[in-house]
Amino acid sequence: MNGQGAAPGGGDGGSSADGSSADGSSVDSSSSYFTYAFGLAAGALSAFALLRLAAHAQSVLVLVALSAFFAVSLNPIVTALTAQRRVPMPRWTAVLVVGVGVLALVAGFLAVIVPPVEREVTALLHQIPHLLNEAQDRSTWLGKMEAKYHVFAKIESSLSSKGLGANALTGVVGAGKYVLDMLTSTLAVVALTIYLLAGLPNVVNAVFRTVPASRRVRARAIGDEILTQVGRYMLGSALNASIAGLATFVWTAILGIPYPAALGLLVALLDMVPVIGSTIGGAIVTLVALSHSMPVALATLAFYVAFRLTEDYVLLPKVMRHAVNVPPIVTVVAVLIGGALMGIIGALLAIPTAAAFKLVAQQALVPRLDRR
């Protein structure tokens, strides 16, 4: 009887054990579902918070990206200075030399651009009394126009308006704020570029430490190639822009177009923007040439059309031979997308970014797909 009693007891114990295990598995399953859902919700909230943060800090992120781009672009010069043996330089000395050189170029640009603008504004202010006297003389063309349309009277009435005065004051304050913001952003980009340029090897090593050890060597090779191509692209683009600026200076100086040095620097800067930069620069110089005479403007237009063809089919293939090799259609699309996202800065960063994606696809994505 003890055996028979033990049997049911044992059966009850087994059933209890099975039931508890079943209940336990059910609890574990519910707990795992809850943990998964909680992790998914936390990830979604984190992604949303990061997107909001990126949206609010977009201007700062653009400045950081531009500084990193300039640091990578100037890194080949710093590396060449540290590698040469004639005057041995540690990296910080090479960075200082490059930084002083860049600041000297910016100061030279301002020294060339500001005086012509100041002279034009001063000449316009001195010309205002003469224009007012001509407007009162009915025998002059300006006087006849004033008598017919009363332009100066309307301008004087508008300027005496209280509302326009307040709007003008607001516009002046807004323009001052814009200039201050632009100056602050420029100084921030210069400072960040110098810091990133000085610590670029450490930054690159820290980034590659986040890659798993099994893939680190391959990732390092691709990353080094991207940095090399970006540096070569910027040096080639700077050389091509220098040629465009020098050609503009020579052409405008020969034809007597005003401000040849300023126009040359402006074209050189605009030529750094791919696809559209040289066209905009040529259009600006042609409009300035129009103030000289119509034949000179037409000759300038023909000069820039010929120079653009020479640049696209002769200069760029030679200068960029060892730099990036991006198909033309990809270049145009990348510039359009970059310009739509970040304006001129996006257009400037478009081709190196497209080259980086192309290199990653060729070195990592395509071989992996071929193995499948």
Quick recap of the structure?
The chain is mainly α.
Percent of residues in beta strands? under 5%
Rg result? 33 Å
Cα separation of the termini: 68 Å
Shape: globular
Extract low-pLDDT stretches. Answer: 1-22
Order of helices and strands: HHHHHHHHHHHH
| SS field, number of helical segments | 12
Helix content: over 70%
Largest sheet: none
Structural class: mainly alpha
Mean model confidence by pLDDT = 75
The tally of strands reads: 0
How is this fold's topology laid out?
Layout: H1 2-56, H2 58-83, H3 91-136, H4 141-149, H5 151-160, H6 162-198, H7 200-209, H8 213-255, H9 260-271, H10 277-290, H11 294-319, H12 328-371
Can you tag this structure with a few keywords?
12 helices; 89% helix; single chain; mainly alpha
Provide an overview of this structure.
- The structure is a single chain.
- The chain has about 375 residues and is an all-alpha fold.
- It has a domain at about 60-210.
- Helix content is about 90%, strand content about 0%.
- The chain has helices spanning about 1-55, 60-85, 90-135, 140-150, 150-160, 160-200, 200-210, 215-255, 260-270, 275-290, 295-320, 330-370.
- α2 (about 60-85) packs across α3 (about 90-135) and α2 packs across α8.
- The longest helix is centred in the first third of the chain and has 55 residues, at about 1-55.
- The relative contact order is 0.07.
- Mean pLDDT is about 75; it is low at about 1-20.
